[in-house]
Design a protein that fits this description.
The complex is a heterodimer of chains A (372) and B (264). By secondary structure, chain A is mainly alpha-helical. Chain A has helices spanning 2-13, 15-29, 34-42, 51-70, 74-78, 84-112, 129-154, 179-184, 190-211, 227-250, 278-286, 295-298, 300-319, 323-329, 331-357, and strands spanning 126-128, 364-365, 370-371. In chain A, a hairpin with a 4-residue loop joins strand 2 (364-365) and strand 3. Chain B is globular. Classes of the chains: A mainly alpha (372), B mainly alpha (264). The structure holds protoporphyrin IX containing FE.
Chain lengths: 372, 264
């Protein structure tokens, strides 16, 4: 029975399955439109943001962790001292998002009744920093220090064999907080996954306050007033960052092959790789001709696709579906939002192209290290 | 000065002494006025305003995460200084110094506190960002401080990354090798990046494996002696220095942007 459950979890965690599940689940957890909101309430997913829901969530995570720590294969990975932060990551992301969403839903209900949010107090009724805040800070600091000392006493900092440039460990992993980027390397070349995406993430995050012109929900937890922004942020944060880190740490074994949590890390696991470039699809398979020797001709369709994606889609949307939004946002803000939004969306798109069509590169010019 | 008619506690006696008053200026803060003065008159406490709206001191609102991030930064600075007493950043000594740290130094959990504290700080910074997002606190007038925060988060991760190399074990050099290999593919300034071959004078490539951005980061073509020194200096001096400047701006701006966010 337990074996069956573990097999099932291994199956569920396969990137194709788990990524799809999460992608479908995010708009139900953080419904961006009325339609999703109704669906979420019908499926009772909104009950997650209540005391009972939080308890069930923590219980499920704990059951999974207990199964993990008692499993001969998964415990090897979980017990690595440097992987403990991922356990904390899973618990804390769930707990704090739950805590925030619970307050947001409570405030949404208050606002619907025409009341002020819970955070609101009479502006003249202020508290003194000494003692009210100083004491809270002091207690928080003490508790946190105790936690850190206990952690340090229980788990020794790891030290492996002395550095040896001649023996590469398999798998070689970056520190855990970069494993989202390393996981992107499966789908993109290093110049995109390691340089362009990180830059876009940093600049795109800094641009959030300038792209989000919704002035509501400033200074209190709320969801309903800002649901579209919430959905986009949570999808990027939870699925394209946190989830990829968890996959990279827990589920990537030798040769960066995928292994379910309860699976043995077999170094000889062979996964057939027969990925095909877009140019090969078009010239060799479609037109049944050899690849042209002119690089630009060979990759013309790929360039066109990329160009259309970043230029044509925003332009077309601004004239049709998103016309009112375009007028409200102005061209610069609209363009920025579209550019970063589409860049973010490029990751799941490329992942599905890989899984469904074995597509390797849309534009492939290895001669110039230019593969997209 | 002394008023012998009233019976006084030890605390009061101390708080009225010349030494105490010279340091803190006021006695035990009992009245509203004294309490406000206690905050305003203290260089550390006056990062805070003297009074706050009620919701701002609720743990449910800020989760204490910004404060804990800063606290961890302080813990890491102190434990880091202690570690520097024992650690020499050379290929010859680095690894054995780390072993000595565990085996020879009494009560040796400094390395643990430093390492787990660093992991914890990444988590608290992420959670802090999450709460700022969920309360919409990045909205005007706090747009700029959100940007400063994003840079602080990047610096926190880079601090952690540079520190990862210092034990000079297998974990360290390969994690840093994997991480820094990306720099090789930097457009234009990485030798395996798109556009690098355009930067050439005649037949001579300007960007090659001994002149690109990865070489600048590692001080060589691979992770070696020069890298260890470079990462040591970045980790112990350069990045904390920059992070401290950004933190000063961050805290200053919280006050200038009207204090902690809240509903109107
Ligand atoms: C080293 C990292 C950081 C430290 C030490 C730090 C510290 C703090 C502290 C102590 C506060 C006061 C309120 C609170 O505790 O929540 C604060 C507020 C703020 N932080 Fe940070 N922070 C850091 C990183 C970040 C990041 C990554 C972001 C966002 C991306 C950010 C954005 C903000 C904003 C917008 C405020 C104002 C919030 C409000 O008024 O409600 N900070 N920060």
């Amino acid at each position: 029975m337990l074996g069956l459950i573990k097999d099932f979890i291994d199956f569920l965690t396969t990137p194709t399955i788990s990524f799809t599940l999460l992608t479908v689940l995010t708009p139900i957890l953080f419904p961006p439109t009325d339609w999703f909101d109704k669906l979420s309430r019908k499926l009772k997913v909104d009950k997650l943001w209540t005391n009972k829901g939080g308890f069930v969530g923590l219980l499920l995570i704990t059951i999974f962790m207990v199964m993990g720590y008692t499993d001969p294969n998964f415990s090897k990975i979980l017990m690595k001292p440097d992987n403990f932060p991922i356990v904390l990551l899973i618990y804390s992301m769930f707990f704090y998002i739950w805590w925030g969403m619970k307050q947001a839903y409570e405030n949404d209900a208050r606002l619907a009744e025409g009341k002020k949010p819970n955070e609101y107090h009479d502006p003249d009724d202020k508290v003194l920093v000494w003692p009210d805040l100083v004491y809270i800070e002091f207690i928080a600091l003490l508790l946190f220090m105790v936690f850190l000392i206990v952690w340090s006493l229980l788990a020794a900092a790891p030290l492996e064999e002395p550095a040896n440039p001649a023996s590469t460990p398999n798998p070689s992993k970056a520190p855990w907080y970069f494993l989202g980027l390393q996981e992107m390397l499966v789908y993109f070349d290093p110049w995109i996954a390691g340089i362009v995406f990180p830059m876009f993430i940093i600049i795109g995050m800094m641009a959030i306050p300038y792209m989000d012109i919704n002035t509501k929900g400033n200074g209190y937890y709320s969801f309903k007033e800002r649901r579209a922004g919430y959905f986009i942020f949570m999808y990027g944060w939870l699925v394209l960052w946190v989830y990829l880190i968890i996959v990279g740490t827990f589920f990537r074994g030798p040769n960066w092959n995928f292994f379910g949590p309860f699976e043995f890390w077999d170094p000889h696991k062979v996964v057939a790789l027969n990925n095909v470039n877009l140019s090969e699809y078009i010239w060799v398979i479609g037109l049944e001709k050899p690849l042209p020797s002119n690089i630009l001709l060979r990759e013309a369709v790929g360039f066109l696709v990329v160009f259309a994606y970043f230029a044509f889609i925003p332009l077309a949307l601004s004239k049709t579906l998103l016309k009112s939004m375009y007028e409200k946002y102005g061209s610069i803000r609209y363009g920025t939002l579209m550019f970063f939004g589409l860049s973010m969306l490029a990751l799941p798109i490329k992942m599905y192209l890989r899984w469904v069509f074995n597509l390797k590169y849309i534009v492939s010019i290895p001669e110039w290290f230019f593969n997209i | 000065m002394s008023n012998n008619k009233k019976k006084r506690s030890l605390l009061n006696t101390i708080a009225e002494s010349q030494v105490w008053k010279s340091i803190f200026r006021s006695g035990v803060p009992r009245t509203r006025r004294q309490r406000m003065y206690a905050v305003l008159g203290n260089v550390f406490l006056h990062l805070h305003p003297a009074r706050l709206p009620r919701h701002a001191v609720k743990i449910g609102y800020t989760w204490c995460m910004g404060g804990l991030s800063f606290f961890l930064f302080v813990v890491l600075t102190i434990t880091g200084i202690l570690l520097m007493f024992y650690y020499r950043p050379t290929v010859e000594y680095a690894y054995t110094d780390i072993i000595d740290l565990a085996e020879q130094v009494p009560l040796g959990i400094m390395r643990e506190l430093h390492r787990w504290g660093a992991h914890a700080m990444i988590l608290t910074v992420w959670l802090h960002m999450l709460r700022v997002f969920m309360t919409g606190s990045y909205k005007p007038p706090r747009e700029f401080n959100w940007g400063v925060g994003v840079l602080l988060m990047t610096l926190t991760m880079f601090l952690s990354f540079t520190g990862y190399l210092l034990p000079w074990d297998q974990l360290a050099i390969w994690a840093v090798t994997v991480g820094s290999n990306m720099a090789r593919a930097h457009p234009f300034i990485g030798h395996e990046g798109p556009g690098a071959s355009l930067l050439a004078i005649g037949d001579i490539n300007l960007v090659h494996s001994a002149s690109d951005v990865r070489f600048a980061l590692l001080g060589g073509r691979f992770v070696g002696e020069a890298t260890l020194l470079r990462f040591y200096v970045l980790h112990c001096i350069a990045v904390p220095f920059i992070a401290m400047i950004f933190m000063a701006v961050h805290f200053w701006r919280i006050r200038k942007d009207g204090g902690i966010s809240g509903p109107l």
